[in-house]
TrEMBL record:
It comes from Pseudarthrobacter psychrotolerans. Residues 159-337 form the Homoserine dehydrogenase catalytic domain. This is Homoserine dehydrogenase. Its cofactor is a metal cation. One of its GO terms (biological process) is methionine biosynthetic process. NADPH binds at K127.
Length: 350
């Protein structure tokens, strides 16, 4: 049976949870999916680097939290030597889950590039490389005969990108609108319930929804990247970050939320893109007070939803978890399942 060796670049909430899944469910995955997974390298800013071609003891790695020392105590290095690890380790697949940088996508863009250049496939939940260098990296993967998968970059493990590419064949997509950030949606809901902004953010951080810098969620940068990804992947928009107008929810005060509630409205952070008559695409993200009977008004907590406007079916809506460690680790697993299916011709349902 095939075993894929994987390297985890960034060992925070998402990749730790993937390691937990591999440790706890390895046998089930093997029998149900027809392949095994073995972690052969891990790097993290707080822990350093560890490469063990025979397989890393995941119990040991998962017990390390940065306060308890670095990988130097386990035969690795205290330094985060990403380029050398990514290029030289024996992994078949690099799982990239470091911080999203909404400005230029670095250093994750380089992590992905080094992997693809050294003929390793990549799965990532990091929005930066996909939004800012997606076309270039996809083409590099194709040239090198490897895979670049990023389902978790939009709506965590909820299938959206692959689903839309496969299931909407024969339909023309004219646009989409959706709730694409779990943290801001969670915060708006908690504020409507009477919590103050800081307390609501703190809850979202504890639940593993928020970015390392939650301003990325609150000020709309995260949705800006996701709109860019969906517009380019699904509408073939050919647009750049500067083309996606951005406004976050920091202007939505508790008073505005209570007033909207009295008027039968609910504030939501809505990301959208629409194809214009001349073929160009207009895209943006901004807070909107939606009537309660609007399809997106009832989407609550860290749930996300995106409604695609199609020519033959009208609106088709996909809804599901938009954030969360387990939900996003599953996205990486679904990427690996898709790679396996492409390699073997096995049916993939993800
Ligand atoms: N948590 C979610 O719900 C979710 C959902 C979808 C996408 N994402 C994306 O997935 C990625 C990971 O999310 P997370 O929740 O695990 O974040 P996290 O902050 O918990 O973990 C990120 C880890 O990456 C490490 N890191 C940062 N820069 C690094 C570098 N240059 N080299 C090695 N390690 C580095 C950090 O030390 C940290 O441990 C982010 O890009 C995030 O935007 C997260
Ligand atoms: N911080 C993001 C994670 C998912 O990309 C969110 O809250 O939606």
């Amino acid at each position: 049976m095939t075993t894929y060796d994987i390297a985890l670049i960034g060992f925070g909430g998402v990749n730790r949870t993937l390691a937990e899944l591999v440790a706890a469910r390895g046998d089930t995955l093997r029998s149900e999916l027809g392949f095994g997974l073995r972690v052969v390298a891990i790097t993290d800013l707080r822990l350093g680097s560890l490469v063990q071609p025979e397989g890393i003891d995941l119990g040991m790695a998962l017990n390390m939290d940065g306060a308890s020392g670095t990988f130097a105590a386990h035969g690795g290095s205290a330094d985060t030597i990403n380029e050398s690890v990514i290029r030289n380790c024996t992994a078949d697949i690099i799982c990239e889950a470091t911080f999203t940088n909404p400005e230029d996508g670095e250093p994750a863009v380089s992590h992905v590039r080094w992997a693809l250049e050294s003929n390793k496939s990549v799965c990532t939940t990091n929005k930066g490389p996909v939004a800012i260098r997606g076309a270039e990296l996809t083409s590099l993967a194709e040239q090198n005969g490897v895979h670049f998968e990023f389902e978790g970059a939009v709506m965590s493990g909820t299938p959206v990108i692959r689903l839309a590419k496969k299931m909407f064949a024969g339909l023309k997509l004219n646009g989409f609108e959706g709730i694409l950030n779990g943290t801001s949606n969670y915060v708006l809901g908690r504020m409507e319930a009477g919590l103050d902004f800081e307390a609501a953010i703190s809850e979202a951080q504890k639940l593993g929804y928020a970015e390392a810098n939650p301003a990325a969620d609150i000020e709309g940068y995260d949705v800006q990247l996701k709109v860019l990804i969906l517009a380019n992947e699904l509408l073939d928009a050919g647009i750049e970050l500067k083309d996606v107008q951005r406004q976050g929810i920091s202007t939505v005060t508790p008073e505005k939320i209570q007033k909207a509630s009295r008027e039968g409205l609910r504030w939501k952070l809505v990301g959208s893109a629409r194809r214009n008559v001349d073929g160009s695409v207009t895209a943006g993200v901004s807070p909107v007070a939606l009537p309660l009977d609007h399809g997106l008004a009832g989407v609550s907590g860290a749930t996300n939803a995106v409604s695609f406007e199609t020519d033959l079916l009208g609106a088709v809506t996909v809804s599901g978890p938009g954030a969360g460690r387990v939900e996003t680790a599953y996205a990486l697993l679904s990427d690996i399942i898709a790679m396996h299916a492409a390699r073997t011709g096995a049916a993939a349902h993800v």
